[in-house]
Amino acid sequence: MQLPISIDAGQPATLQSQIIGQLRALILEKRLPPGTAVPATRDLAHQLGVSRNTITAAYESLIDEGYLRTEKTVGTFVSESLPDDAIRPASPTEIEPRSGSLYRALNLALPYGSRGPSGLHRPTPRQIDIDFVFGRTAPRSFPEKIWRRIVTDCLGGAAERITEYGDPAGLPGLRQLIASSLGPARSMVFSPDQVLMVAGFQQGINLAAHLFVGTNTGVVMEAPTYRGAAFLFESYGGRVIPVPVDRHGIDVSRMPTERVKLVYVTPSHQFPTGTTMPLQRRLELLEWAAQAGAYILEVDYDADFRYDGSPLPSLQSLDRNGCVIYLNSFSRSIGPGMRIGYAVVPRDLIQPAVTIKSLMDNGLPWLEQASLMQFLREGSHEHHLKRLRQTYSLRRDTLLGALREHLPEAAISGADAGTHLCLQFPDDAPTAYEWRAAAAVMGVGLHPLADSACWLYEHLPGFDRTILMGYTHLDEGQIRDGVARLALAVPAENRTGTMTFMRLGASSRKPALLSSARRQRQQENRMSAHSSATRIVRGACPQDCPDTCAFLYHVEDDKLVEVTGDPDHPMTRGGLCVKLKNFAEHHYNPDRLMHPMKRVGPKGSGQFQRISWDEALQTIKERWSEIIAEHGSQAIMPHAYLGHQGTINGLTAGDSFFNRLGSTVAEKTYCESGSSTAWIMTVGPTGGLDLESLAYSKYIIVWGMNMLNTNLHAWKFVLDAKARGAKIVVIDPVRTRTAKQADWHIRIRPGTDGALALGLMNVIIAEGLVDQDYVDNFTLGYEALKARAAEFPPERVAELTGIAVADILTLAREYATTQPSAIRQGVAVERSPGGGDAIRAITCLPALVGAWRHVGGGTVEMPIWEFPTDFAFLCRPDWIKPGTRVVNELDLGAALTGQMKLDPPIQSLFVYNSNPVSQAPDASTIVEGLKREDLFTVVSELFITDTAKYADLLLPATMQAEQLDLMVTWGHLYLMLNQPAIEAPGECVPNAELFRRLAKTMGFEDEQFRMSDEELLRRAYDWNDPRLKDITYDKLKEVGYLRLNVGLPHERAPHAQGNFKTPSGKCEFAASAAAGGNFVVSVWRSGYEGMQPGTPVDAVPNYIPPHETGGTDLAQRFPLNLVSPKPHAFLNTQYANETTQQRRQGEQIIVIHPIDAAPRQIENGSYVRVYNDRGGFEARAEISEDVAEGLMMTNVGHWPGLNRSGTAVNSTTAPRHCNLGQAGVFSDNLVDVQRV
Amino acid sequence: MTHVVTDNCRGCRYTDCVASCPVACFHANEVRVYIDPELCIDCSACIPACPVHAIVEEFDLPEDQQHWIGINAEAAGRYPVIRAKLPPLDGADDRRQALGY
What we know:
The structure holds 2 protein chains of 2 kinds. By secondary structure, chain A is of the alpha/beta class. Chain A is globular, with a radius of gyration of 37 Å. Chain A starts with 14 loop residues before the first helix and ends with a strand. By secondary structure, chain B is an alpha+beta fold. Chain B is about 30% helix and about 10% strand. Chain B has a two-stranded antiparallel sheet. Chain B has a two-stranded antiparallel ribbon with strand order 2-3. Chain B is globular. Classes of the chains: A alpha/beta, B alpha+beta. At the A-B interface, helix 15, helix 17, helix 23, helix 24 and helix 39 of A face helix 1 of B.
């Protein structure tokens, strides 16, 4: 051996000492491990060009020291036991990760790690003993004895062959045989020089890709297709153009018109559907290729195994234009581990193909080729194939029989040939993933189509109910046993549905429904406690929640006994939530307001006396007439939000009335307004990504939402995606229960989401991960956005957000390259000064990476914009006198107390659908205002809440089972009718009726105020809008809910081709609306377009830091940031007065990090006071690392009057606004905390 | 707050509950299922689904059944999650009758 020693005569040290030093170092560094032989002295002397004596002396020195030992006549070795002081642990040189991006260096179009395994290596997990996996051959069928003999024979002549390079096209004799015997067997005529031996199909495809595919080369592929091929083409920069298959294979009528170079087809046994391309279609394809000037890559999978009918002539044999590259392989007939196949190329491609092949690998290994040649030559292959065909045919029959017996409802395709078939279950059966899970419990391996090395599977209708079954490697007993176990795993009553045949190329299907049997059983279970005289009425949930569940009211003898979720609604799926659990009983809560009341004690004492409606209305008329005469109608101000979310009883219930009255316009921006403005500015009033489509995403970011708490019903779609291999990321300052279910929880400092979004853009742009084609065609202002993003390198963003640089890089890369990628935005992001622009930035991200192209790609915030509601009619902004002032509801305290200079001052407040004393910021100021003796306050309510306590008049409202409305939803795309199930109790009225009465009282004769509930609802929607096609009010009365016509979840991709609802039609990175300054979307301000805030808005989104927590002096006095998200068992303040819900929710808790608790002597369970300059509240402390150091969390929604201190968190929150839409800044709140 | 699976499940393991759960918080072994209290969101969809009424909301548990809270919590850590319904165990219907349902 040669030692890595070099000596330098120019050095002061002697040659001998240099040699000793270097040898010693080699030994100490373990590069010469103990026991290694060192060279003979003569050899080392020769190597180094020194005298032998020098080496001998060096060795002797090291022997003395104990590093070497010598064995007479054998040699010199490194000692096994080195000198004590020589034992140094090996210190491999630290390899510094290179700065700069791996992805910049690699010449891959897309990194593939996050898309899942691309190849066919699929080891079986231990607990599976019968695996219906694709791609294996039966070990027992392998001709072991024959093969061993052949290999041994071949080795006899190995010496000549292995010592030289072979023909890169492959062993000539083998190619000769293929041309002379395998070719004719398939009626193919070609000469040996057209044959190239390749390492299986994969290398054959690689060869074709290398020849034809460059950046942006179009390659047509069957859809669905083999993933390994699709990714391979893309890795060369190619663009896969999917063309769906029908019963006869690739649908030639749907070929693209653009120029393509290559078409990839699997005509013998389509992968994965298994269909065989009939002669007619083959001819059509060839004709198309000739005209288009394209080459066809004929990948002849499974050609050897045809069970029904005779094999069809290959495309290659039918081709007259020399445009077919034919591939075949011995993977199926001998085994995929062999890695041998062959390509037959047209004459004029021989030269380039052989050249590329030799550049690739200089030819396949000789031994395998030689053995194969022998195998063919002696006729063993022929014989082996015959036997295999018999065996496989038997196995196929066994499988078909077993399937027919045990799973008759499943449709089968691809059984007439090949080594796999496709099994498709009916629409209302469990999904392929559920089958896989159930099968795994029984030890059976099943592989959903989407997880079987397929790609473009979404082009197959019913793909999520399709399983790819490989079976030829299993014996008959295993096949029968396996299928029988499947039938046990999912019993028949859960598999119902009509027999559906694989409708390849069929049009859209209905959303999945529960089987009628399952539904029946659920109903029975629920109703088991009740008599059979139950009447069921369809309704929908009234709450401010994106899920808007479909209700079933159970009424017995005119009493509401239960409210359950409709099992057939795709979102509701038969379950409601913890908040609605005792909804029926809630209607009978003894504390309900039943009659109008007037105040008899001091303001806020809660002392009231019952009066009649007449007296109440008369009082209102008198007081308002006085106020209007003295101060003008603007002295009256409503205060309303989403205590109810209906079309006529909800947000805009009183708008037409108050606009007619001429009151101050109240700007309703508690929640969502900032997000609305941001969204409209960027993408326009589009619904965006349907939450149901999340099931098709491969990368889901839940940004600022605790979905398990506040969007529960959409979580199923996230779980579906996860089952298909999607990665779920949650971005949240707190480790919520949703974050705990994510694959990756990213903790972010509250109020810095804009910085993170811009940072992601920075990385995406810098690393060339932008979908430039999408950006160029469908967005506006890329250059400006790019310049902005350049200001936010990862290091800066890390400082601002508290997120590690590595995480920012990974998130950006994964998000950009794992398509379809989706962002589910939460409203929480807006609750900080920079929140509006943060949402703009987040909303820009999908267009930057082309996510909108795909089903399941894009972003969603509030799809409400898809509903064609006639707000002009509901709100009547045309009744607003020009110049009418606007007062924001979050500024209520300042407005009532005179802190805000208002002329005329507010003299009367009318509250409905809202509870500002509990929910609005700066509660202390609000209470101060409400205590004014000269403020005439009317509150419409269900209970005497903390706000209602300050009323002069109370008006009783109905609950949901007692009123008619079309529910507004902001989380799905179904129009939901709520029909009354029981009579309104006492003298309660729905809001629509309340305002009819008020209008009459004030002498308003307009027709609007004489319309009935149903008339209002019929008028409130544009039924001629295409989105409401086939949806009528009468139909809704029958079925309760219908989905808008905006595309079904598995096919909706509203912005695949741009079509944004902005003025430009593009996604506006640079928003044209920015020029007009800040605005609140008119639905949040009674339809009023005038008197908008108009504060300057940056053309492209920017990062605006939090106010309080952005390092101000305030932080000295109040070092802790407090966020106040929604509670689990209440919906805002609703149900917080129910003892059952209070038990479920618990008392007011403040979650605090151990590091913050310790110096304050706060322990788990201690009672503490949380406070700042604005006020404070008491709560029980819970120590947890779910929050970060410096961050505390408490829930909003507890009634202040039921809390220890009589106050709640909103005593501490600031009445400031975020930069867009006048939303609140609830998360930008500094406090301190101490034990009480 | 959580829901707990009590004794009636043992020997039946109908798993209708699993099909109804929106957050996949059920864990199963060879004889019964358990609910992960960390993940349960108290929606109660599972309660009416169970043919043998084995599931109870935590604070509805009688005094002598309180131990099920701890059992479910511990077992959830030990056994795998199931997301799809399984066939009931042999004898499930007998047990159901014996329990009076």
